[in-house]
Amino acid sequence: MGKTAYKRVLLKISGEALAAEGQSGISLDVIQNLAEEVKEVKNLGVELAMMVGGGNIFRGVPASVAGIDRAAADYMGMLATVINSLALQDILEKRGIATRVQSAIKMEEVAESFIRRRAIRHLEKGRVVIFAAGTGNPYFTTDTAASLRAAEIRAEVILKGTKVDGVYDADPVKNGGARKFDELTYIEVLKRNLKVMDSTAISLCMDNGLPIIVFDLTTRDNIKKALLGEKVGTLIRG
Hints:
By secondary structure, this protein is an alpha/beta fold.
């Protein structure tokens, strides 16, 4: 067993990463592969929390542009993250991984309400804590929620899993000449307006000295490599 570079981490997963390529909804193949990786990570002794988006089911901002009230659309997006969290919890527990879903919106029949000290205690007991419903407030993204929760539980790093292998100076899908960054500072991300996380999330990480590793979630063992300190994706720090 290798020695990990971090003991307590928050893994942020975009909702789109849970869907099959070019589709919406939840891909069981994708979520099962993720669960296998999480199991391997837990075997390293890492304390793991997770924050999942809801974009594979519903996205608040586009819906508000289409005519739905922005606050209502954002709450709908929060409920989508709960659906993803419950699906992830079920698949993880079928592999023997103890989990707790903590929601920022009260829904006692399906999830615990978020309580910081309780979340930390779950982590200390070896459970995976899945944070759902973002911050519980409209106008805040799940990236901001991930930064907030990571700071609250005193995580040592945020692992942001996407479908791209790092941060580029342009969209690598649309621009074949886009340049990948191996490392960036928070200020560089903000000045260049790089679409890594929203500015509120980046500022929260900067204020709390919380590094971010942006990596390709679809490549097997990338989570483990990042935790073992190997170079994966793009590292963002002060």
